[in-house]
Amino acid sequence: MVENRGPELQAVCSAMVSISFISVVLRCYVRSRIVKAFGWDDFLMVIALLFHVMFATCAIGGIHYGTGRHMKDLSNDNIVEAMRYWWLCYVAYCWAMIFCKLSIGLFLLRITIRPLQRWIIYIVMGLTVFTGLVFFFVTLLQCNPMSFFWDKFSQTGSCVPIDVIIALTFLYSIISVICDFTFAILPIFLVWNLNMTGKTKALLVPILGMACVASIAVLCRMAYVMDFKNPDFLWATVDIAIWSDTEQALGITAGSLATLRPLYRQLAAKLGISTNAGGESGKDTPKWYGGPSTAKESKRKSLFNFRTLMRTEKGGTIKERDDDYGMGNLQPIRLRDDLVEESQVEKSEKGFQTWIVSAGGKSFDEEHDVPAVPPGKITMQKDVVQESERRSF
């Protein structure tokens, strides 16, 4: 019986493409329909998905001709076609990872203010592109003529020593892991000084730092890189193909999941599930003086009721009447300083780049759905003036 690992590779490719495809579709829905701020990071992730689909398609096409089987069991024509598909997988992998890392970097730039942190992201993005392009061109041009990589039966040519490819693969993998963990650690500093509860920060950091998930596949693949030396290439390199496909899927999926929180909040609201970050779900509010509460209080963040708004423009300070914002019925206006959940476009339309809420020298970041006031009780309301500056970073 002929040994064949092709079905194993095909199953992995099919599963990984399905997962990454679903995550990108959901991302596009959130960015275009919910927050209405489809940006370059989303566009680049779509391109990364297309190259991932190309990788999986070429891998499955190679299986048809012999990828996953011993080369002694294959005809020369099948070996040529299988090796051609392997070469195309090289190309697709390089570009999928370049666009994926660029997308993650641009996403983090959306929520980064401090110049040092922005420079770190730019450096990581530049390093990712540089190493990705070096790996791409070396693997693309490793043989002369180029077609000698897959057709060593009908022509003569030469290729760079395989040790060079192995060394470059290790170098690329190490840099990739460093970049991934940089993207994973940076969100800790991004949310450290935000006006959020500790629990909210603890939930937000893993979401923003999911980029390091792809490094798991990179580390696993490094154990098989030496298989490039194996003369039985199509059989021996199946594990490299599996972990390369997994790396792309994890990077694309993790980078997309970080943008899906608005969808979760929308679904939770429709299902009546609390998205409470500051307390237990469904917990009653403290009793009114003299009687029990008749409604529930939910704590989220950055939602306030304002009677008067002030917006600072370059030309001076402009006061807005309540009617300008539909405030006659005291509907809450959302003011937040994180760009994860609110549309950058929405903020720009209201004249804000960074939103800062302060009163009495203190900043506030929680919201309260005010419970119904029982008859006969007394409530006190304070008018708050909110000032913000429109700044460009």
* Helix vs. strand class: mainly alpha
CATH top level class name of the largest domain: Mainly Alpha
> What overall form do the CA principal axes indicate?
elongated
> How many strands appear in the DSSP assignment?
11
DSSP helix count? 11
Strand fraction equals 5-15%
Helix content: 40-55%
Strand order of the largest sheet: 6-5-11
How far apart, in Å, are the first and last alpha carbons? 65 Å
CATH architecture of the largest domain, please?
Up-down Bundle
> Can you give the mean pLDDT?
74
Major sheet summary line: 3 strands, mixed
Order of H and E elements? HHHHEEHHHHHHEEEEEHEEEE
Short note summarizing the structure:
The chain is mostly helical and 393 residues long. The chain contains eleven helices and eleven strands.
Give the secondary structure arrangement, pairings included:
Layout: H1 6-34, H2 40-65, H3 76-110, H4 115-140, E1 143-144, E2 158-159, H5 162-192, H6 198-208, H7 213-222, H8 233-236, H9 238-257, H10 261-271, E3 299-300, E4 303-304, E5 308-313, E6 316-320, E7 333-334, H11 344-349, E8 358-359, E9 362-363, E10 367-368, E11 385-386
Parallel strand pairs: 5-11
Antiparallel strand pairs: 1-2, 3-10, 4-7, 5-6, 8-9
Pfam families: Fung_rhodopsin (PF20684)
Membrane topology: Multi-pass membrane protein
Protein name: Rhodopsin domain-containing protein
